[in-house]
Each structure stands twice: as C-alpha cells, then as structure tokens.
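Take a look at the protein record below and flag anything odd:
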Amino acid sequence: MVEQIDRHAPPESSKRVPSFPDGNTKIQATQHKELKKHKKEYSTIRNKYIAHIRKTKKDSWRKFVTDTGNQDPWSIIYKIQTKKLKIENVQQTIKLSGEQTASWNETMEAMLQSLIPSDTTDNETRWQKEIRLRTETSPDSEDTPPFTTAETEKAVRILGNKKAPRHDLVEPEMVKQAWPVMQKEFNDMFNKCLQDCTFPRQ
C-alpha cells in the first residue's frame, strides 16, 4: 500500500495542479490554492500566539520570582529550586454513598462532613462517646517540670550548623556563640514558653 502511494504521489518539488474528480479543475485548483494560503496564514498567527503566551508566562514567572525572593529568600522559590517542595495531585472528585461529586464545592463539603462531622450527640457510636468522655475529663497527672540548664545546653549543642535561618534570621551558630553568656536568659525563655503552653514562631 505504501509503495502504491509513493508511486502515485507527486514529488515535493512538483508544481503540478492536483486533479479533481468532477472536472472543474481550474475552479477547484483556485480553491485549493486559497485554502493553502489561509492555512499558511493560520499557522503564522498560531505560532505568534503561542510565542506570545510563552513570553507572557516567562515574564510573569520572572516577576513572581523577583518579588517573592526579595521579600523572603527562603520562600517557595527556594523550595522549588532545591526540589524540597512536594507537589501532590489534588483530588477533584470523590465517591460517597454510591454517588460521585460533580464540583469542587461538593467535594470539599463531602470531605469536611466525613473528616470533621458536626459535633452533636445524635447517633453517636460507642467509640465517639468514649472520645467525648476523655476530652471532658482533665488528666490526673503532674505538670511537666521546668527545663534545667543542662537540658537546654544539650539542646543547643545538637543544633545543626549551616542550617538556613527562619524569619527571625537567627542562625544556629549564633545561638551556640551566645549560649555561654546567655544561659539564664535562654533557659528562662524556654521555661516561660513551657509554662504558658506557647511556642512562638517568631
């Protein structure tokens, strides 16, 4: 079949007008020529359109990287560059009670109802009743004792060097250098956090 096609197909450099079965060779040849012209115009416009999209995406990404990087050098740009950002597939639809959700809103509502149901005592299972009873009962145990200076010093020593600082820009090496002259301040600060049950991020 391929040999037959190659035998009857004109060479690429041929200028022969293609034949048409109904005999209107001149009219249809003109139409064929116009069709090729429009196809070429379409390809040119399409290529320009694709090039414009690529340029716009590149400019937009460059602006995002510049603005975000100037505000926080350890933000999402840093994570993408060092391949520390895990991108997972987002679940768009789920099957619940034999029916498939049809939109983002239905999916989110179904997930919320399944994972975080309404906190009511209606139709509670035995396991849920036990959970509720445990949460309403205060644990009968003593408070955690305050940190000793030795415990805090041990935690400071095991801090990894050359780790990127967080938003406070305090590096592990700085903490280690300051420890000999600020032992009491560090220990008091951590014990205050333990006492208030609050560990600030900044």
The chain has a mean pLDDT of 79. DSSP finds eight helices and two strands in the chain.
